[in-house]
């Protein structure tokens, strides 16, 4: 772990309490990290608080230069990071190539937004000066998910650091290894103590972090149940600003006039099979007009069946295993529930055949049709390579199906009719709506969910400002 500028085993590692990490593809041991105690977390937070005062006193230009230096360091070790990440997560190496560039790019993007950390003047009186200032919270906690552990950890340092905060990161317990490389980079490129990285499970490490009285700002990416638990724990002893980027059960709505060639390709690419469908933005609910339902189901199934499932380190692999034994069991349980409830299995449905897949957490790309809105598969986020298809008759039914979820992260609508597209944009309850595309992120526009999919927008100026507090200042003559 990185605590107060030094790489350390902490109390947990010194006591022999370690978290072993295994390849989800082969189950072979890859490495281990110390399991942080509440004492380790407290030391990390207090070190961060001590370093943050000097960091906040720097100009935005000095902070920006430090972030750009870290970005360069990340790029220099990109190959090492990618190979370890592919082994530790099961994500395919070919698609992971973007993660290092995204992480470095976010650091550079937010470095360039430093001058936007500005307040405003208000003509509240004729003779006084009334203005607002933006100041940092102090210590920020960032809790990272297992699907893109390095990218999420490094990229989401950018906004809080640029705003003048220190950061304590907790890595995911199932894929923590790249967090130690990030610790080395932060040690080498940033002032001592301003970033601290702890490994550990939800308890005690995660719980101690979100409850710590010196932390007033928390950012979390992960599941809805964990997000709710963080809100409860954070509120137990102090008022904290919590933003959450949570799950999705994202509708992919296809009207009969759509370009079906693009629909089929994007329905598959939007599922993010390169990380086994383990993405909050995966387009896992195909809502298909009855006139095109059968054709789209057949063509998507054929495309999914043709995906090359294999070794994450093979540059030709299009999908690797799911991340962990727990996630594997959940995906298979939801597949079984779909069978029990009467859905029709079109392709996939279990472990791929062959000796190469006897070990590890493998699941075939899976598509179910004849799914009804009350089935678990239509309502629960699988976070795995499983797609369900539902049929609708008209616009009103499409809207009702799209919104029939407690989640509201993204939605995609496919039609060439502009008035219909505009109506759907207004009616769908989601933080991001794509028209005739899906899955793309555009830096500078907010990404975040409605309903139980989260609070707050990331990847934009709003994220930077959310890591600052407003102070009103009144000067009277």
Keywords:
Aldehyde Dehydrogenase, Chain A, domain 1, 21 strands, 477 residues, 6-stranded mixed sheet, 2 domains, Aldehyde Dehydrogenase, Chain A, domain 2, single chain, 7-stranded mixed sheet, 17 helices, alpha/beta
How does this structure look, described?
This protein is of the alpha/beta class and 477 residues long. The chain has two domains: 2-246 and 453-475, Aldehyde Dehydrogenase, Chain A, domain 1 (3-Layer(aba) Sandwich), CATH 3.40.605.10; 251-442, Aldehyde Dehydrogenase, Chain A, domain 2 (3-Layer(aba) Sandwich). Helix content is 39%, strand content 20%. The chain contains 17 helices and 21 strands. Strand 3 (18-22) and strand 4 (29-34) form a beta hairpin. Helix 5 (93-111) runs parallel beside helix 6 (149-155). The radius of gyration is 23 Å and the shape is globular.
């Amino acid at each position: 772990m990185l605590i107060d500028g030094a790489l350390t085993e902490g109390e947990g590692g010194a006591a022999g309490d370690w978290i072993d990490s295994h390849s989800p593809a082969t189950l072979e041991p890859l490495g281990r990290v110390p399991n942080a105690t509440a004492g380790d977390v407290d030391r990390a937070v207090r070190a961060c608080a001590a370093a943050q005062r000097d960091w906040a006193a720097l100009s935005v230009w000095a902070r920006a230069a430090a972030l750009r230096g870290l970005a360069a360091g990340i790029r220099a070790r990109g190959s090492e990071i990618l190979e370890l990440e592919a082994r530790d997560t099961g994500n395919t190496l070919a698609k992971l190539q973007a993660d290092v560039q995204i992480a470095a790019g976010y650091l550079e993007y937010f470095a360039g937004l430093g001058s936007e950390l500005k307040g405003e003047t208000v003509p509240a009186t004729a003779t006084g000066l009334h203005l607002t200032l933006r100041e940092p919270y102090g210590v920020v906690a960032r809790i990272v998910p297992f699907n893109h552990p390095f990218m999420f950890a490094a990229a989401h340092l950018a906004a809080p650091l640029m705003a003048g905060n220190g950061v304590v990161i907790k890595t995911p317990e199932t894929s923590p290894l790249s967090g130690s490389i990030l610790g080395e980079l932060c040690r080498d490129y940033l002032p001592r103590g301003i970033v601290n990285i702890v490994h550990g499970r939800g308890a005690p490490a995660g719980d101690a972090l979100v409850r710590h009285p010196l932390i007033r700002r928390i950012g979390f990416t992960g599941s809805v149940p964990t997000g709710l638990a963080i809100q409860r724990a954070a509120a137990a002893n102090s008022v904290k600003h919590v933003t959450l980027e949570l799950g999705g059960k994202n509708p992919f709505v296809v009207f009969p006039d759509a370009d079906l060639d693009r629909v089929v390709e994007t329905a598959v690419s939007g599922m993010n099979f390169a990380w086994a469908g383990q993405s909050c933005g995966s387009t896992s609910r195909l809502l298909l007009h009855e006139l095109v339902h059968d054709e789209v189901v057949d063509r998507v199934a054929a495309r999914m069946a043709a995906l090359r499932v294999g070794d994450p380190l093979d540059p030709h692999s299009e999908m690797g295993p799911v991340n962990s034994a727990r996630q594997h069991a959940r995906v298979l349980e939801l597949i079984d529930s779909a069978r029990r409830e009467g859905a029709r299995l079109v392709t996939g449905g279990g472990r791929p055949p062959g000796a190469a897949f006897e070990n590890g957490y493998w699941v075939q790309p899976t598509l179910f049709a004849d799914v009804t809105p009350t089935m678990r598969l239509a309502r629960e986020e699988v976070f795995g390579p499983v797609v369900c298809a539902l049929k609708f008759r008209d616009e009103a039914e499409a809207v009702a199906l799209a919104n029939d979820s407690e989640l509201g992260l993204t939605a995609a609508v496919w039609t060439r009719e502009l008035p219909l597209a505009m109506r759907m944009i207004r009616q769908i309850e989601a933080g991001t709506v794509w028209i005739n595309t899906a899955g793309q992120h555009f830096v500078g526009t907010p990404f975040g969910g409605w309903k139980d999919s989260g609070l707050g927008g990331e990847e934009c100026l709003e994220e930077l400002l959310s890591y600052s507090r407003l102070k009103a200042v009144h000067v009277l003559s």
